[in-house]
Design a protein that fits this description.
Cobalt-precorrin-4 Transmethylase, domain 1, alpha/beta, 11 helices, four-stranded parallel beta sheet, 18% strand, Rossmann fold
Length: 285
């Protein structure tokens, strides 16, 4: 029988668990319809489950007027929050505390005269929220982007960096290494969250000893995608799934060591369901 191991650090982080507790409390209170500004977390299964219980996702604060509105874990722009507090019956801020720290770090760098850049994916809700806290800030996510904008960094001279909380430490090191020769002063606020770093390190350790790796989490989840990328570097047979129903028995043919990890928006129940499904598959073989 193959050995099935779950990574030491995997699954829902503090910020996600906190957000889920908040939405549960809002549903129990039931004083007003419950809505979330954007998907509460990047886990389609959880969002769908909440929707079945009446929790509606809205894209604009004005679409939640009169409702109890939760601000998503990835954060929102100051303008969105202002509109929400003006129109909604109640506003609950489910923004991850680590994301809040990134906002504060970016604002501090700006106040100290640095040209602020966010090492992260342009268009990602967390990055967009952070950029909105510092008008004029820009997102960068690769060495090639740094090289293409070399003149911009040379002109800025004093550059300050904050980091998308789910960015890999390796990517941050690459970007910092490319920036250093271009600027007179570089200040880096490493705002990668502790859970993200722990998940990534644990994933790497498990992938190195596994024949097959299963990574569980939303395909729209940046931190889960990062885990799949890391796993793929050390385990050729890496599969990123959102749920147990996507598993295929032939993935485990000949495997002696099967590893499982999960993104920070993946509840423990989803991890157990995947492990149980794999166990049944390998037993039949």
């Amino acid at each position: 029988m193959p050995t099935i191991r779950i990574a030491d650090e995997a699954g829902a982080c503090y910020g996600v668990e906190r957000a889920l507790e908040m939405v549960e409390a809002a549903l129990e209170e039931g004083a007003a319809p419950v809505k979330t500004l954007g998907p509460l977390i990047h886990n389609p299964k959880v969002v769908k489950s909440l929707n079945k219980r009446g929790v509606q996702v809205v894209d604009r604060a004005k679409d939640a007027a009169g409702s109890a509105l939760l601000l998503r874990t990835h954060g929102v722009t100051p303008e969105e929050e202002h509109l929400a507090r003006a129109d909604c019956a109640e506003v609950m801020d489910a923004t991850c505390p680590f994301v809040k720290k990134t906002h504060a770090a970016a604002e501090r760098l700006a106040s100290e005269g640095y040209a602020v850049y966010v090492v992260g994916e342009a268009g990602h809700p967390e990055v967009e929220a952070t950029l909105a806290h510092v008008p004029g800030a820009t997102a960068i996510d690769s060495v090639s982007e740094v090289e293409a904008r070399a003149r911009e960094f040379q002109d800025a001279r004093r550059v300050g960096l904050v980091v998308q909380t789910t960015m890999s430490a390796a990517r941050l090191r690459e970007v910092v290494g490319a920036l250093l020769p271009l600027v007179e002063e570089l200040r880096v606020m490493n705002t990668i969250c502790e859970a993200t770093a722990g998940h990534q390190q644990s994933c790497e350790r498990l992938a190195k000893r596994s024949d097959v790796m299963i990574v569980i989490g939303g395909r729209n989840s940046a931190n889960t995608t990062r885990l799949a990328e890391i796993s793929s570097q050390f385990c050729r047979k890496t599969h990123h799934i959102e749920g147990a129903e996507e598993l295929l028995a032939n993935w485990f043919d000949g495997a002696q060591d099967i590893g499982i990890t999960a993104g920070a928006s993946t509840p423990a129940a989803q991890i157990r369901a995947v492990k149980d499904a794999i166990s049944q598959m390998v037993e039949k073989h």
